[in-house]
Amino acid sequence: MSSIEECLRTHKFIAIDTEFPGCLRQTSQDASDEERYDDMSFSVGKTKLIQLGLTLFDGNGSIGGTWEINFSDFRETKDARNEKSIAFLKRNGLDLKKIREEGIGIHDFFLDLNWILKQTRKITWVTFHGSYDIAYLLKGLTGESLPVTSERFSKSVARILGSVYDLKVMAGRYKGLSSRLGLESLASELGLNRVGIAHHAGSDSELTARVFAKMAKICDSEGYVYGL
């Protein structure tokens, strides 16, 4: 944690990605914003985070470091999960047994992260399709259930996290790109290649940081999280 604290002194942007046991409710395409939030809140409240990726970078896009944190809390045979999502994570190389044996406890990690963040001002958070990422982050930092409405959730995000960007929203508002693009496709459109393995939180957060650094020069959509 000391390395993250040190890096934050000069790199005030944090790109995040999470890997988690999947969605417990299937949200219909014509669901209202509040129904989408309710389904997300239910899933995040019932499930345990498996992996968190953090990439710290500065306003010029220079990356200070990437951290991939594995959490020991999730028990594959006992805890709430979406079996298809678990199979997907395994196909992409996540060793859930090893993560449980060697990972850190969620409570302990976020206790330390919360203290570090309170010492640092004006952090900018960056996500891709980030409703679940932000929700797990908020849950971890507060140690509480998510707010009961999407409006209260948005207010909590603004109060606790501050500035938030979602690349999927940014892509949808820029001519020549589209919110339908996945992270890999969006990066390719911008001439960027991945470092590491897709659907691992560290690699995804690092690619998110580099895509944002390039997109920030051409478009701006602060404060909107895709999916909410």
What's the CATH superfamily, by name?
Ribonuclease H-like superfamily/Ribonuclease H
Helix content: 40-55%
Query: What is the arithmetic mean of pLDDT?
Result: 93
Q: Estimate what percentage of residues fall within beta strands.
A: 5-15%
- In CATH, the architecture is 2-Layer Sandwich
Biggest beta sheet attributes: 5 strands, mixed
Tally the helices: 10
CATH fold description: Nucleotidyltransferase, domain 5
Q: In total, how many beta strands? A: 5
The string of secondary-structure elements, in order, is HEHEEHHHEHHEHHH
Q: Please report the distance between the alpha carbons of the first and last residues.
A: 31 Å
Coarse structural class:
alpha/beta
- CATH class categorisation: Alpha Beta
Shape: globular
Unreliable runs, pLDDT <50, ≥5 residues? Answer: none
Radius of gyration: 17 Å
GO molecular function, one term: metal ion binding
Function: Ubiquitous transcription factor required for a diverse set of processes. It is a component of the CCR4 complex involved in the control of gene expression.
Cofactor: a divalent metal cation
Subcellular location: Cytoplasm; Nucleus
Overview of the molecule:
One of its GO terms (cellular component) is nucleus. The mean pLDDT is 93. Strands 3-2-1-4-5 form a five-stranded mixed β-sheet. It has one domain: Ribonuclease H-like superfamily/Ribonuclease H (Nucleotidyltransferase, domain 5). Strand 2 (51-57) and strand 3 (63-70) form a beta hairpin. The protein is an alpha/beta fold and 228 residues long. It is globular. It has ten helices and five strands.
